[in-house]
Amino acid sequence: MLTILVGGFFGDEGKGKVAAYLALKDSPSLSVRTGSINAGHTVTYMGKQWKVRIIPSAFVNKSTYLGLGPGALTSIDVLLTEAKETNALDRIYIDPHVGIITESEVREERNDEYLMKTVGSTGQGVGYAEAKRILRKLKLAKDYGILSKYIANIPELIVEKLEKNEGVLVEGTQGHYLSLYHGEYPYVTSRNTSASGVLSEIGVGPKYVDHVIVVFKSYVTRVGEGPLEGEVSWEEAEKLGIAEVATVTGRKRRSAPFNIKLAKEAVRINSATQVAITKLDSLFKEAKGVRDYSKLPQEAKKWIEQIEEELKAPITLIGTGEDALDMIDLRKEKLGGD
Ligand code: IMP
Ligand code: MG
């Protein structure tokens, strides 16, 4: 069973938490990350918190093998540091084609006023490394001896697992509206963040996909520049309980209420088979920590049901707190079978 997880807004929807939950519940044999170190995924489990930029959030399940697909990019330092911190050194596999970001791409990006100021880049060198890859000038994982013990053919490994009926969880990064193709260019990142982009990054064709889960937060946040419909001031966001600070850069995030129009388009372009909604407890305080749908406050249920009706896709997972297991899971009821 191949499941792809993607963000439906501008990143920071809580994919890390959803991925960690699915890893703990479904015990996938393998979890593969796409994207790069500009992403920051937060995982909280059993009183501990990690902020990972490249290791798949499924690391919380020690029986899950972890992989980086050929389209991913990382710096060697971030990769090895995080692999140590998450106890993943003995179960991480990197495709030989993973792009390697060095100090020089970071420096070039940070000196690029257009990227840093106009676009609001995170300055992690990802865009410059992607550009060099397109120009065929970037070095890849296979070129670095220090990585040789982690190298594996990820597309082949994924299909091997699927043919044995094992679970594979693919973790996309950022969000639909930061996609190089589908977001509001030039206020976008350097890759296609949508489900089809994720597939091309892992090197597996569409016929293998069983589920695409699009993750939305109960409100919208955006870091960096570009349009944000319904944006509220930082003070207003604090009052509403939707004020956030970015994981990688520490910048204040911009906030707006849930946007059904954006959500509909993300569901369509990503061909969602399921929708996850996170941080419901930010909108409805009494939802905090609830793990049983029937125990949600009436108004929260009504809010969920209205959105589901408009999106015409089942809302199967609802996040109600920080811990990976603070989740209402409606997959059995709404999808049947498993
Ligand atoms: P870059 O990809 O770091 O160059 O950043 C380009 C734009 O995407 C900027 O607006 C960033 O703030 C945004 N961005 C990149 N990665 C993330 C992420 O993981 N979460 C949220 N925004 C991101
Ligand atoms: Mg993030």
Description:
The protein has 338 residues and is an alpha/beta fold. The chain has one domain (2-335): Adenylosuccinate Synthetase, Chain A, domain 1, CATH 3.40.440.10. The chain has twelve helices and 15 strands. The protein has helices spanning 15-26, 76-85, 103-110, 113-119, 126-134, 154-163, 195-202, 234-240, 260-269, 280-283, 298-311, 331-335; strands at residues 2-7, 30-33, 41-45, 48-52, 65-68, 73-74, 92-94, 99-100, 168-171, 209-217, 219-222, 254-257, 274-278, 315-319, 327-329. It has a nine-stranded mixed β-sheet with strand order 7-5-2-9-1-10-13-14-15, sandwiched between helices. A two-stranded antiparallel sheet has the order 3-4. A two-stranded parallel sheet has the order 6-8. Strand 14 and strand 15 (327-329) form a beta hairpin. Helix 3 (103-110) packs across helix 5. The longest helix is centred in the C-terminal third of the chain and has 14 residues, at 298-311. The protein is globular. The mean pLDDT is 97. The protein binds inosinic acid and magnesium ion. Magnesium ion (MG) binds at residues 11-12, 39-41, 247. Inosinic acid (IMP) is lined by residues 10-12, 38-40, 115, 119-122, 124, 126-127, 173-174, 178, 189-190, 223-225.
